[in-house]
Amino acid sequence: MRIDTYLTEYARKTPHQIALEEGNNSISYISLDKDINNIASSMMDFEHCRFAILAEPGIQYVKMLMAVYRSANIAIPLPFELPMFSLERIIESAHINNIITTETQYSRFGEDLFERFGTVIVVSNDTSVKYLRKKIASEKNNPDLRLVLYTSGTTGTQKGVMLSDKNLIANAESIIEILGIIPKDKAALVISPHHAFGNSIIDSHFMVGGSIRMGTMNFVGSVFNLVESGVSIFYGVPSTYRILLQYSERFKKAFGNVRIAASAGGSMDKPTVISIMQLTPDTKILLMYGQTEATARLAYLPTEDLKDFADTIGKPIPGVTLDVFDANRRPVKPNITGELVARGDNILLGYLDDENATKKKIINGWMHTGDLAQKLSNGYFKLLGRKDDLIKIGDHRVNPREVEQIIENNNEVSRVFVVPVTHELMGTAISLMVIPKAGTEVDTLFAFCRKSLPGYLYPREILTIDDLFLSENRKISNRSIIEEYQNVKKSM
Do residues 14 and 209 make contact, with C-beta atoms less than 8 angstroms apart? Predict the structure, then answer.
């Protein structure tokens, strides 16, 4: 089965049940199913082809995503928040010939972005469909491929995670079981639906015939209004909760009827957990861990263990097996550090058009997460950091080396170094250290970052340095970058 077939089922069983809400608009299952059929009819001539989806978060995006599924093609949502040059990199690396977009996004980017596509479909606000051009080209794709999600947050080369219908349904079934989602539940979706966490919320609630209230985090007041519209399950990354908890009285009022406050996309600090518990003691807090490569989730911490095991990711979700391997890919004993590995029906098919990366990620049926971890004696798992250099900013994974390269390639500087720094809301932000050239202007660097990088990558500060200490193997390490930054700050 595909996710969209559940919509058809509920359009028949509970036709007038509200499926989606956005602002003052709502749509029932029967109307949603009809609109999906209308959009899908424009893609029926294509046979399992890749379709980029460029649409703002909201009801229209969900219709287009499900329409690509229904036409038996392959959906490739383009991360909405990325600047044009990052979208172009994804489009080129994914070898996409077809795109479906909204009138708003077509006007936003203009023909400069869309001229590279053989097929361009524009969906209007009333769900009418218009072909700007159509070119059907034969494609050879993995026969099980249904969705390609790009790992969030990096500004350089990104990997396309290939997911099947089986992956999507298996992961949604596990989430439904963990959260106990039922048809009368209404979910709050205020994070990006273009990424794995947001996508999993859509899947899990559609599979039970529930409803989803869609919004954004652009205005805190509107988020609280959204929650007060009858939301029973709220989803957010840790920074979502930190932002909302700044308004403690409003949080207490809005979340008073929320059954579950679920979090993923990073570890939630103990003060945030305690604040939620104190303000809304009847709300269950459910912390989850996962990766895009796992169709969203791998582990969760049962609510009853929140106080005693808040520093862990808990146990595997149903249908997933976790373990910790040493450098020789052998299981280690409890309390020994190694790499967290996983297997189950939700594990990715591979990376799009990248067999080498796939072979490194999936070895003997195990997905290597890249996270260092320990297995505790009770079967829970504790994370101890990343094997690589990725920085977590909100719900975005950022490769600092890629950010450095972008700034260096577009500015008069000798070197740029990204430094992870603590941020009171996002958990982590970045500062920059720069080895300047004669013409380097700090104000110019700030202006470039403001114009060319996503907002979460705008640096808190830019410091100039003379040189940087090199490690013994003559490579610049994260440790040396952070130590130099601390030394510079002390001397200021």
Answer: yes
pLDDT digits (tens, 9 = 90+) for 85-132: 888 989 999 999 999 999 999 999 988 899 999 999 999 999 999 999
Task: Report yes or no: 169 and 1 within 8 Å, Cβ to Cβ.
Answer: yes
Domains and CATH numbers, the chain: 3-141 (3.40.50.980), 166-386 (3.40.50.12780), 399-491 (3.30.300.30)
Cβ neighbours of residue 180 under 8 Å, at least 6 residues apart? none
Residues 425, 433: Cα–Cα separation, whole Å = 22
Q: What is the DSSP letter of 12?
A: H
Q: Are 96 and 120 in contact (CB under 8 A)?
A: no
Residue of 302, 359, 294 whose CA lies nearest to 322: 294
Burial class, 372, CB count within 10 angstroms (exposed 0-12 / middle 13-18 / buried 19+): middle
CB atoms within 10 A of CB 192: 21
Q: DSSP secondary structure string, 309-356?
A: STTS-BEEPTTEEEEEE-TTS-B--TT--EEEEEEETTS--EETT-HH
| Positive/negative CA dihedral, 348, 343, 428, 307 | positive
Beta-carbon count within 10 A of 71 CB: 25
Single-letter residue type at 321: T
Tell me, what's the pLDDT at 153?
40
Token representation of residue 147: 């969705």
Query: Do 231 and 187 touch, CB atoms closer than 8 A?
Result: yes
Amino acid at 469: F
What tokens were used for 462?
């830019």
pLDDT in tens, 31-48: 999 999 999 999 999 999
User: What does the block give as tokens for 265?
Assistant: 């996309």
Task: Point out the residues of the chain with pLDDT beneath 70.
Answer: 152-157, 385, 388-389, 469-479
